[in-house]
């Protein structure tokens, strides 16, 4: 049956906004993206305004709208699908981070030298652990006071410790010096010496250089005049004849080991005779031919014979004679003194 060319009045009018219906169908298929579209995405076509239907056609338009809703949406073409898929991939792909600026290439001129840091690191200050410099005390420390009886033991009293020189030299001292001159002894006067704390004293000392005209003594020997006279007579009367008899030569000199010394006897509280210039220690004898005879524990046989003769002859002119064998302190010399003893006795070992 042929359809009339003219539109029937009972048929609803088809709206002319075909593109809008297609666009809505497109939006229904692909949901609107929440993210902002990229600039390269194509803009959707602008919606065409639909004219309002005339009053007499309002009912027909409502009927046509219902029919359009029931009609299945028209499938988009292939080109639109590819474009939509590309747009979705671009939106889903995260944008790459901005590239970091390339590292600065080191200069070839300073390649071997490291670039100094922007800020020089400052080391942490170490705590001051150095020991403070020792300061001397304000006052010097004093030793604790000693008990009254803890000091050095005093020497036993000796009456000679109180001897002091007089304004005028005594007559016996003058006479002694005259005798020394007769014996050919060279000497010189020396000022008096004393030490009240120890007790030594020599009020009229002399220093002898020779024991006669041909016998020297050294080093300088400080003695009282009586001891100097006894030593000079001993050298002339005992030592000189013994050297002549044993060696056939004269005595040239005597080497002394000790004369005046302000000290006590070793290991005792008694003052030594040296503290009064009243003792002489002889270490060796030298003969005119240059032979030196030293005093010791085991001298050569010929020297030992000479020394024994001299030692025995000394006991008498001197009140005390000590030497090797008497004690360790006298192992290398003869000790001769004029210590006064009871009844004029002697002590010889």
Automatic annotation (TrEMBL):
Signal sequence annotation: none
Biased composition regions of type Basic and acidic residues, renumbered to the chain: 82-93, 151-171
Compositionally biased residues, Pro residues: 134-147
Comp. bias (Basic residues): 15-29
A Pfam family that the UniProt record links to this protein: Extensin-like_C
Region (Disordered): 1-171
UniProt name for this protein: Extensin family protein
Organism: Mesorhizobium erdmanii
